[in-house]
């Protein structure tokens, strides 16, 4: 076979492929591609933008194919079925022109977000790279879709020998859907999750040489502890082995300080969540955690990580007179766990809360510590679910701080939807503010001046956090947090588009921890300090001293 003949075969294959494409699908896909270039909450690289635009093109193409099929099914007149029709070429040319115009604005749109977050502006949006990555992504999705169609047709042809044609078609599609669902969620999904979990488990077992077991008997993993250093896991060792010491707090406050208590139980400590909770309770009794001024039950993120920005500031505010306890329930990161298994970790959070709460409520009210709950991300979701309000009516905990509450948080969702008229969805005001208050980078939502009730809850959230504000309903309706006035870290160029906005926010959720501190899903020590001060009171700290503490705990400038 000569070179000319091979080139002719390649050209024929490309011509057949082009002729097999749906004109309405290409038109709608191109429009979806352009809409995916617009900004949402998190700055994008050209790689993430290309993947997002490719999925947007695929979504638009699929909807166009479906609408075209529906039009033909209803036997309505149409100009032509293929991309070769002159009118189709004109429409496609207009769509391509629109896409080029949108590609030229990509950098400017991204800079509207980057400027709000203090990032350097982009000089270019890399339109050719974005387009190439989008094309590869679209072709990959198209291949999978055509495999789906092939399976459906093979099944319907076999079934069509014994049942009516339309019934066979329905059975073929149903079989293909069930097969795809089974492979995606059960076989492949489970295999991927198990592989990831195993990988994270091996990483969790790694003992960093830079973190030594604590010398203080008041910390898990010490020589006097009920648990060995290796049983804490990587995240547990990072939590227990860090944080301010008595000397650090005393030097900053120019006064007396106590050694903060930190307790952590890793997954290797016992087989079941109930057994691990009992170990945690025994460790708390050993170190005298219930004799402190405050006790914090922490629900960590999916990997078991506890945000040091949240706990360090509280230990300073309380002059070290605080005990913190956490228990690991997973090796997977929070966004992954949240998307595939949002109930992951609930049993563990519930077991720890019940063990601590039941012992705490058995103590004399005038001799027990104030009890608080804390969680970030998936930890906030599971912490929220761990404590049933009805069982605490006669003896409630003192309060809770939940930062970056995920969109799956039911209590957060109900309170946000029931906010006072006129208050924004990204910083709601709920009734008189005596039970729950919302905070962001600029402090607590303006309230009515009402004092706190017996139980107080603070939600710390940023308007640019997609893990909080993602919603599957964004597929077909504009979210309330886009209404004016918008959050201080949300681009004024952000607009809602059906289907596309949900895809954009799904990507933002995956990239939510890539932002500078104080934006997205990366919560700053200064904002935690304000949240804790609102919950526990100023404890004698002046406003100037709190500002000085914020500067002391602020991360170094990059």
**Helical content band:** 40-55%
Compute the CA-based radius of gyration: 28 Å
Percent range for β-strand residues: 5-15%
Q: Count the helices. How many?
A: 19
* Low-confidence parts: none
Describe the structure.
This protein is of the alpha/beta class. Helix content is 51%, strand content 7%. It contains 19 helices and eight strands. The protein has helices at 3-20, 23-35, 46-73, 86-104, 106-116, 127-159, 165-205, 233-240, 246-253, 273-287, 308-317, 334-340, 346-361, 378-386, 410-417, 466-469, 500-510, 525-536, 543-553; strands at 261-265, 294-299, 322-327, 370-376, 399-403, 436-440, 443-444, 456-460. The protein has an eight-stranded mixed β-sheet, sandwiched between helices. Strand 2, helix 11 and strand 3 form a beta-alpha-beta unit. Helix 3 (46-73) runs antiparallel to helix 17 (500-510), helix 6 crosses helix 7 and helix 11 packs across helix 18. The chain is elongated and about 85 Å long. The mean pLDDT is 86.
Topology:
Layout: H1 3-20, H2 23-35, H3 46-73, H4 86-104, H5 106-116, H6 127-159, H7 165-205, H8 233-240, H9 246-253, E1 261-265, H10 273-287, E2 294-299, H11 308-317, E3 322-327, H12 334-340, H13 346-361, E4 370-376, H14 378-386, E5 399-403, H15 410-417, E6 436-440, E7 443-444, E8 456-460, H16 466-469, H17 500-510, H18 525-536, H19 543-553
Parallel strand pairs: 1-3, 2-3, 2-4, 4-5, 5-8, 6-8
Antiparallel strand pairs: 6-7
């Amino acid at each position: 076979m000569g070179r000319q003949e091979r080139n002719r075969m390649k050209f024929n294959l490309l011509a057949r492929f082009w002729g097999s494409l749906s004109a309405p699908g290409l038109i709608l896909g191109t429009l979806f591609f352009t809409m995916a270039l617009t900004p949402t909450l998190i700055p994008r690289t050209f790689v993430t933008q290309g993947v997002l635009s490719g999925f947007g093109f695929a979504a638009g193409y699929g909807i166009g194919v479906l609408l075209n099929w529906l039009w033909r099914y209803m036997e309505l007149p149409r100009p032509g079925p293929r991309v070769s029709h002159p009118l189709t070429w004109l429409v496609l040319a207009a769509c391509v022109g629109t896409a080029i115009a949108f590609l030229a604005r990509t950098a400017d749109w991204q800079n509207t977000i980057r400027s709000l977050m203090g990032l350097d502006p982009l000089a270019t949006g890399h339109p050719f790279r974005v387009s190439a990555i989008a094309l590869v992504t679209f072709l990959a999705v198209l291949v999978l879709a055509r495999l789906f169609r092939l399976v459906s047709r093979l099944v319907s042809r076999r079934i069509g020998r014994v049942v009516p044609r339309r019934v066979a078609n329905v059975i073929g599609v149903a079989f293909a859907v069930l097969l795809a669902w089974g492979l995606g969620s059960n076989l492949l999904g489970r295999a991927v999750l198990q592989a990831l979990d195993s990988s994270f488990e091996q990483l969790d077992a790694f003992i960093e040489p830079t973190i030594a077991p604590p010398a203080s008997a008041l910390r898990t993993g010490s020589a006097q502890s009920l648990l060995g250093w290796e049983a804490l896991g990587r995240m547990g060792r990072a939590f227990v082995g860090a944080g301010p010491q008595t000397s650090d707090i005393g030097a900053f406050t120019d006064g007396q300080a106590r050694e903060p208590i930190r307790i952590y139980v890793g997954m290797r400590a016992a087989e079941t969540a109930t057994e691990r909770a009992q170990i945690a309770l025994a460790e708390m009794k050993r170190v005298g955690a219930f004799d402190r001024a405050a006790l914090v039950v922490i629900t960590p993120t999916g990997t078991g990580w506890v945000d040091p920005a949240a706990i360090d500031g509280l230990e300073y505010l309380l002059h070290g007179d605080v005990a913190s306890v956490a228990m690991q329930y997973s090796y997977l990161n929070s966004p992954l766990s949240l998307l595939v298994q949002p109930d992951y970790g609930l049993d563990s959070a519930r077991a720890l809360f019940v063990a601590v709460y039941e012992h705490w409520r058995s103590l004399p009210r005038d001799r027990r510590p104030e009890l608080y709950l804390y969680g970030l991300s998936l930890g906030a979701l599971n912490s929220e679910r761990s404590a049933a309000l009805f069982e605490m009516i006669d003896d409630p905990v003192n309060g809770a701080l939940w930062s970056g509450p995920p969109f799956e948080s039911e209590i957060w969702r109900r309170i946000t939807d029931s906010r006072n008229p006129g208050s924004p969805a990204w910083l709601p005001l709920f009734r008189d503010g005596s039970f729950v208050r919302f905070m962001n980078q600029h402090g607590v939502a303006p309230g009515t001046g009402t004092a706190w009730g017996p139980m107080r809850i603070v939600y710390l959230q940023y308007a640019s956090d997609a893990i909080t504000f993602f919603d599957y309903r964004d597929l077909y309706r504009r979210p309330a947090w886009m209404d004016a006035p918008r959050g201080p870290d949300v681009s004024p160029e952000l607009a809602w588009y059906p289907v596309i906005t949900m895809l954009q926010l799904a990507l933002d959720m995956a990239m939510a921890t890539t932002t500078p501190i104080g934006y997205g899903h990366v919560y700053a020590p200064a904002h935690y300090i304000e949240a804790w001060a609102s919950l526990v009171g100023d404890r004698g700290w002046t406003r100037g001293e709190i500002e000085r503490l914020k500067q002391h705990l602020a991360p170094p400038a990059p």
